[in-house]
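REQUEST ID: PR-0412
SUBMITTED BY: lab tech R.K.
PRIORITY: routine
TASK: structure prediction, single protein chain
INPUT:
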Amino acid sequence: MKRFIFLSIALLIAVVASAQSINETKPLRLGPDGYVHYDHEIRLTVGASPIDHLEYGWAIWEPNSELIHPDDFLYNGAYKNSCGYALSYMYSPRKWLSFGLYVGYTGWWQSQFTNSTSQLHSTNFEHHIMFVPTVRFSYLNRRNVRLYSSVGIGYGLCLERTKDSNGALTQSYKSAFVPVQFTPIGVSVGRRLYGFAELTVGSMANLSAGIGFRF
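STATUS: complete
OUTPUT:
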């Protein structure tokens, strides 16, 4: 997860740096109320409480091993998740329309304990990597404030690993799922470099915020 975050930040910085040099000679497209239209944008998003598709049985499982111990002998600990992280690119042919791609990550983990001794038996880790084409509709465009909605559906890959109490790998799974992300309302504040917050429901987050750069 840390590698994904660092790579995303490095890529965002590289794109922003190149975009600044490109746009030094690009004419501005002005609109009413001081609105300036930019064709492209890059975003780095952090989100909270993503939906786990595997929890609701949306995944297509391809197991390569069998459980060694019956579930009757074990009980599950708390089901936890990391935040959702995404790097995205959007193209805006019109001021009210944008479309592009989100590349996202979420992590999940849960431990199992023995009924008799309550000792740690194993821990299950899930890494969800998502590629989500997205369409966004902007219905308020001002100099420094924009309101919008968006929807996206794509392809997701889950890599699941189970390790015993000593950290040794005991199981390995791969599964495919369909990530969906719907944002009924989002707001961005700023012009080229801006911050944003979104009320959203989906595979990457149920509430998100981040920074972006238009060029």
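NOTES: The chain has one domain: 53-214.
REVIEWED BY: pending
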